[in-house]
Amino acid sequence: MGRTDRASRLIAAPQTTVYDALLDREAIEAWLPPDGMRGRVEWWDPRPGGGFRMVLTYLDPTDSPGKTSDATDVVEVGFADLVPGERVVQRAVFEADDPSYAGTMTMTWQLTPAGEGTEVTVTATDVPPGIAQADHEAGIASSLANLASYVETPSAKSPTR
């Protein structure tokens, strides 16, 4: 079994709002890319057995060479389990020639009620060894901060699936 990385954040939004943002294409494009990246979803199928393909582009690839090309990470994500309002389990595979990025990483997004908000815990298992643990945990924390900003602001779009 590979490495496990984790990050969590308390988000001031109801579980259903957070869950909906995990399964909305426009929302994912807005909040999932960590700082220093932008994302574009190429295809989207939000159901168990479905998934999506995302191209993540580094805004400045100088110090962060991509896994797929010098400036990009391309990832195919399958939805392995969807428990409305509670959990999203994804299986992610990076497109990369370097074998240190090979394999399937499982990302579990667990949503737990916390007062008037939601504790979101992300657990990544079988993380490819080419992904530095500190960088990965910082990236997850950045995505969680983006998710919080997305769902906590009054102007957040209502997800449509």
TrEMBL record:
Lineage: Bacteria, Bacillati, Actinomycetota, Actinomycetes, Kitasatosporales
UniProt-recorded name of the protein: SRPBCC family protein
Superkingdom of the source species: Bacteria
Annotated coiled-coil segments of the chain: none
Family: Belongs to the AHA1 family.
CDD domains: SRPBCC_CalC_Aha1-like_2
Alphabetical list of Gene3D superfamilies matching this protein: 3.30.530.20
The Activator of Hsp90 ATPase homologue 1/2-like C-terminal domain, residue ranges: 13-152
